[in-house]
């Protein structure tokens, strides 16, 4: 472990973050209760998290830094400040989930990958996107929850597993060393319904796409009309030069000329130019306003709207993990 730490420090000082990450990870895996203390393991987890943060591995960084800061009171103040600053930098890039499990010894899997510890409450971090959380325990029905993770958001829910009452009664009877009659069948309770993800997490993205499309379309149309106005202005100038070169005509009298006369054509060009110029300018300004509002939405936090209750609905989401492919169907009947 000490050799890995030495190599990791040397790689970190040289800015070789990939090598430093590998060495600190190996040191953390080599550390155990017999050869290291909780504070040493917390320090290793924090240093590993900072190296992962430098490589933009935000989920791994957030997980290791949170693990380190569980022992924050025992860490030196300088290390505590470094690890807390790293956690603040990683937080906007990941979603945080506080998961409660009942029974507490249930096995928890995230996207098909088992979490290597058991607890009643877990603090988990996710990359943005769709994820599947599964809980399972012997004698219990698996619990599933589909999570649409949003960067910078915090989620919290409890995942109870429905366990067979008959198996519990049988185990209790065996422990007492007595025999009992066959228990009366009980009506199975309905499976716990997973909490549906809030639709407010996705609608800002749809509005942004619409805003970008409208801004691009209006600005493009306005630019085309302004170019057309410029072309019409050139045609009008050419026509006016022709009239002025004719000694029998006077361009200053053209604006009262009949429609079918050469001067009437000049007036038609002027009206078309003015209309194209006005409409084109209005479209460009409108597109600019829409574009500015769309750009501003990327710096606006809409998470507070998630508190609004969603209407009952059926939601179908594709789920792909390292071991499973399918769909998650959630609904209220």
TrEMBL record:
<feature type="region of interest" description="Disordered">
    <location>
        <begin position="238"/>
        <end position="257"/>
    </location>
</feature>
<keyword id="KW-0472">Membrane</keyword>
<protein>
    <submittedName>
        <fullName>Tetratricopeptide repeat protein</fullName>
    </submittedName>
</protein>
<feature type="region of interest" description="Disordered">
    <location>
        <begin position="174"/>
        <end position="193"/>
    </location>
</feature>
<feature type="compositionally biased region" description="Basic and acidic residues">
    <location>
        <begin position="238"/>
        <end position="247"/>
    </location>
</feature>
<feature type="transmembrane region" description="Helical">
    <location>
        <begin position="279"/>
        <end position="299"/>
    </location>
</feature>
<keyword id="KW-0812">Transmembrane</keyword>
<keyword id="KW-1133">Transmembrane helix</keyword>
<dbReference type="InterPro" id="IPR011990">
    <property type="entry name" value="TPR-like_helical_dom_sf"/>
</dbReference>
């Amino acid at each position: 472990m000490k050799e890995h730490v030495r190599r990791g420090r040397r790689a970190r000082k040289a800015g070789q973050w990939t090598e430093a990450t590998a060495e600190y990870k190996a040191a953390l895996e080599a550390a155990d209760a017999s050869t290291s203390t909780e504070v040493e393991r917390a320090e290793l987890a924090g240093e590993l998290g900072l190296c992962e943060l430098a490589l933009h591995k935000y989920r791994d960084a957030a997980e290791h830094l949170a693990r380190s800061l569980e022992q924050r009171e025992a860490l030196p103040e300088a290390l505590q400040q470094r690890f807390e600053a790293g956690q603040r930098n990683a937080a906007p890039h990941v979603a945080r989930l506080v998961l409660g499990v009942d029974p507490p010894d249930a096995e928890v899997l995230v996207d098909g990958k088992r979490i290597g510890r058991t607890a009643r409450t877990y603090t988990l971090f996710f990359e943005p996107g769709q994820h599947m959380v599964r809980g399972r325990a012997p004698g219990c029905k698996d619990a599933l929850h589909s999570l649409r993770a949003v960067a910078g958001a915090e989620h919290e829910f409890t995942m109870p597993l429905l366990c067979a009452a008959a198996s519990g009664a049988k185990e209790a009877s065996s422990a007492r060393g007595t025999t009992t009659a066959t228990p009366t069948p009980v009506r199975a309770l309905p499976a716990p319904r997973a909490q549906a993800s809030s639709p407010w997490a996705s609608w800002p993205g749809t509005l942004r796409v619409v805003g970008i499309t409208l801004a691009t379309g209006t600005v493009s149309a306005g630019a085309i009309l302004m170019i057309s106005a410029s072309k019409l202005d050139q045609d009008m100038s050419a026509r006016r030069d022709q009239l002025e070169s004719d000694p029998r005509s006077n361009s200053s009298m053209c604006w009262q000329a009949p429609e079918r006369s050469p001067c009437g054509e000049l007036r038609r060009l002027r009206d078309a130019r003015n209309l194209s110029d006005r409409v084109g300018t209005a479209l460009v300004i409108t597109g600019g306003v829409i574009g500015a509002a769309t750009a501003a939405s990327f710096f606006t936090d809409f998470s507070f709207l998630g508190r609004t209750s969603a209407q009952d609905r059926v939601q179908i989401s594709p789920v792909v993990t390292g071991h499973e492919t399918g769909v998650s169907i959630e609904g209220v009947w």
